[in-house]
Amino acid sequence: MSSERLIYLPLGGAGEIGMNAYVYGYGKPGKERLIVVDLGVAFPDMDTSPGVDLILPDIAWLKERRDQIEAVFVTHAHEDHVGAVAHTYEDLKVPIYARNFTANIARRKMEEYGHPEDAVKTVGPWPHQQGAGPFMVGFLPISHSIPESSALVIDTPDGRVIHSGDFKIDLTPGVGEPFDPALWSEVCKDGVKALICDSTNVFSPEPGRSEATLGPAIEELVSNAAGMVVATTFASNVARVQTLAMAAQKSGRSVVLLGRAMRRMVEAALETGVMKDFPKVVSPEDARAIPRENLMLLVTGSQGERRAASAQLARGKYQGMELKEGDLFLFSSKTIPGNEKGVIRIINQFSEMGVDVVDDSNGKYHVSGHANRPDLETLHDVVKPQVVIPMHGEHRHLREHVKLAETRGMQGVLAVNGMMIDLSGNKPKVTEYVETGRTYLDGSVQVGALDGVVRDRIRMALNGHVTVTVILDEEDEPLGDPWVDCMGLPETGRNNAPLVDVLEQDLSQFLGRAKAATLRDDSKLNDELRRLTRQSAQNEIGKKPEVTVVVSRLS
Amino acid sequence: MSSERLIYLPLGGAGEIGMNAYVYGYGKPGKERLIVVDLGVAFPDMDTSPGVDLILPDIAWLKERRDQIEAVFVTHAHEDHVGAVAHTYEDLKVPIYARNFTANIARRKMEEYGHPEDAVKTVGPWPHQQGAGPFMVGFLPISHSIPESSALVIDTPDGRVIHSGDFKIDLTPGVGEPFDPALWSEVCKDGVKALICDSTNVFSPEPGRSEATLGPAIEELVSNAAGMVVATTFASNVARVQTLAMAAQKSGRSVVLLGRAMRRMVEAALETGVMKDFPKVVSPEDARAIPRENLMLLVTGSQGERRAASAQLARGKYQGMELKEGDLFLFSSKTIPGNEKGVIRIINQFSEMGVDVVDDSNGKYHVSGHANRPDLETLHDVVKPQVVIPMHGEHRHLREHVKLAETRGMQGVLAVNGMMIDLSGNKPKVTEYVETGRTYLDGSVQVGALDGVVRDRIRMALNGHVTVTVILDEEDEPLGDPWVDCMGLPETGRNNAPLVDVLEQDLSQFLGRAKAATLRDDSKLNDELRRLTRQSAQNEIGKKPEVTVVVSRLS
Hints:
Chains A, B: GO terms for molecular function: exonuclease activity; metal ion binding; RNA binding. Two copies of one chain form a homodimer. By secondary structure, chain A is of the alpha/beta class.
């Protein structure tokens, strides 16, 4: 088959939430011209990726096709969509297109990693279209929890495809553009081949609420507070930051921004003009002269991140600011699964200070940025695509979204990372399985998730580590006793004998009895010493540690 | 002051959820006769306690006062209340009193660890009272999510104290005794000095629902399912297990129990007579002959535990049983904070199999075992204590519960682990701060949480590990080159040079230049080699690993 085809290939974000990276291609099989939509990161955790700094999509497939790639398009400035643009630039070296606010954030990243900022090109919203090989791509505004979020209208020789990006249906989103049903209907009226669609909230049965519904509740809370008020939310949720700041202003409070991301996002929003009337901000130094009941701090760390402002305030002072009994702390945010313990730790630390903590458990102080089930139906109805391909979701979300589309008379295609879908013709089909995965940014190095590096770390965390050192003389005879060092293991085991002594004794006995053939054979000797160390530790402390054996020969 | 006093001292469970251990004492200060209420465990996690098997309360304070301890009383058979009885028996060696079902579970634990089962004494419910030094203790039935849960009525020379244990207000709990307001009023009518009270659900504003409300919804779900149904809940929630089994029976399904805890709990419930009419159970072997639409599996692992039945089924086969497209999996449970990722992993694995997963997000298939805020008020009103001392909660729960008591005209005392409260007289006061903490059961050894063992493991998980070996000859001159082994670190760093080579080269250069004084001094040489290794790794891979230095001298 040599005719041209239109393909869709998720490399990240389909079958997980985070690390978005989607590829579209058009051309002869294997020769398609490609565009990449979003290049985001995911965040590591102790359970699966201890010590890792960031998780990037594995773009090996793209690297091998570097010459086929026309451009990267970034739908919005959330880390899971834009976070990897700098880390992957060296490998791709193609222009990065984004709207003004998103481009501002992307350029800061490029600068931080020493890449040319002008690789990021600002493009205007629909009806502007940017050409990229066989594609014409337009940024169609849609509401979300960050300014200038856009769906992409991807015109191909095979028809129009809509990539929703992250979205909600919000007619009054505060900062950022409202969802405009008339504009969307106009764009979609001549038929849409496929809608590649956000699936995050497919299990939420009620229609989503507008950002505008939060203002009155937050204002009431802030104006009734007796002491200082501290509020946290994602800094990138500029509309929320503004809602919070306006509540401060209305209750006569000066606003202090704490945390790098908070200052950076407000700066970017003002620079790009997406935010116009933000109250005057007071520095932490100047805030000290202001009575605490006239202060409101907007701080980073809504997910309990240990180094962010809220966690630091929970542990004590941060930039000279400190909470006290009678102050109020507001989580204007939802806790992302996996972050509960960190958030709860902070709440308890504030509780110990006598600070009242208010969170979103009553639904008054936060709304989601993603379309709930009825809102997905609204978008389906406006776009009327031939096919719905769910993305931005774990497997359960994608599967449910496919079901939803099918019950509503559309085709639904379940495509997880690595499934290349051929969208040509009337019946999309899986045409290839591409190897995908995760790359870890670990310190300054990128390592594959399956390289074993992290696996070894997890093993050391679970089992501890023993170093065994043996020196053999020119005759392959042990010179002195073996030497044992332990890390992450109890000092004493059964019968209160020091673990190191027991291990050294057992190893020493073994060496005394070992055959010359074993002593001469590095690999055999290593294996035996390792096995014996683990066995001996198991007897003594009920654990089999990881073992490094160093055999030194004087020969 | 030498008069006698009544004291309350939480050693675990106050300021955290889990690891319950409360002490009551009566006598001259420092000479009090003591009883211990509950000896439970908490569960480790990768973030704070990798490799640890169980977390026990630190009972050093009790060990030093072994001669003053009369007995242990266990309110109910949940792990966070009974889990540590066997692990602490050697140190305490006092009788353990519990009701029949709880005693059955406790004896299984004693047997497992080789302790005398007859140390566990069965006592009947109120009005029976068990003497223990100056105390008379009665087990007053109260509803919870496990059979025979009881509050303790602790009569002291200073008056009556009620220790609520874990409870909910349920008049129709299925298995187990209903809350009996008349009995409770009778017990409390002559005045209660203090109510030490469960605080878990103080933030839940609605009255709790009865276990009995679940039956119809679960029956409907199970009877409408087309394929096999698999349900998970805490095995110890015997009432729920029965509700699920009855739903199976009503829809003509045979019940299969999977997971050790599930079989063990049903066995204990039948042995002790707390459960009478459990449907006939089919073995996994026999189940293979039964059509899957006539099967219902009740399985362990509602919290996503990797080794439990539900996680194993999510990965593939377990005891010959396997889920398929069209089957239904029910979480009749709530996910405990911190366990979300494990549970979500399972849901996605089932989604990949085409299995429909139903959880409690709509509130139809699970009710909590703890008293919500209005139910706490109900208990306050029945008991009418002079003082409420909240327990079984994190700091935020205890603080809120104190506020609740105080707004309702009672005294409230916030006592966290280690605060000894003097309950004598009319105004309870903190009389002493006792050092408390956590002990880790790690393999077969108990280690202190602050001993550094786990800290070192976490560091290795975050930073990786390097072994550096250097041999010095009789003249303190390096013999050959230093040798480096890495674990949990990338193989190559900047410029793609092998990390090991770069480190060995840097260390070799250092040794070549090192002064004789450094080479002669073990401690100095160790420090320098460690520092240099970390610095060199930082340059190369952006990470400072943990380092074990082994210097061998031929002298």
